[in-house]
Amino acid sequence: MKRHLVLIGLPGAGKTTVGRMVAERLHAGFVDIDTILIRKEGKPIALIFAEKGEPAFREMERKEVEIALAHEPSVVVPGVAGPRSRARSTAQDPTGTSFI
């Protein structure tokens, strides 16, 4: 895989399910940002969101997306709103990161 593939969509749309299948098919890494945040914080997304608030949660999400995009190309599944600004700025990025 030469470029990242970042899947975005509404909650429950199947990003994680499809992302895992695509990563397997492409023999690529798979990065689920929600799973990373749950592991780092030791609590479910809803609780992180409730305790820290939306702005802090979105910043955590944004940082993890940036970290994922700085590594080897992989299939990346961020949260719902996490990649909005990054998606806009990366859409024409010379690294060729794809957002679907």
Could you name the key traits of this structure?
single chain; 100 residues; Rossmann fold; four-stranded parallel β-sheet
Span of the ends, CA to CA:
16 Å
The CATH H-level superfamily is P-loop containing nucleotide triphosphate hydrolases
Instruction: Please identify the structural class as seen in this structure.
Output: alpha/beta
Given this structure, which CATH class is correct?
Answer: Alpha Beta
Helix content: 40-55%
The strands making up the biggest β-sheet line up spatially as 2-3-1-4
Q: Name the average pLDDT.
A: 84
Q: How many runs of DSSP E, i.e. beta strands? A: 4
Tally of alpha and pi helices: 5
Question: If you consult CATH, what is the topology?
Answer: Rossmann fold
Order of helices and strands: EHEHHHEHE
**Would you identify the CATH architecture?**
3-Layer(aba) Sandwich
Low-confidence stretches: 87-92
Mind explaining what this structure looks like?
The chain is an alpha/beta fold and 100 residues long. The chain has one domain: Rossmann fold, CATH 3.40.50.300. It is built from five helices and four strands; from the N terminus they run βαβαααβαβ. The protein has helices at 15-26, 33-41, 45-52, 54-69, 84-90, and strands spanning 5-6, 29-32, 74-77, 98-99. It has a four-stranded parallel sheet with strand order 2-3-1-4, with helices on both faces. α2 crosses α4 and α3 packs across α4 (54-69). The longest helix is centred in the middle third of the chain and has 16 residues, at 54-69. The relative contact order is 0.27. Residues 87-92 have low confidence and may be disordered.
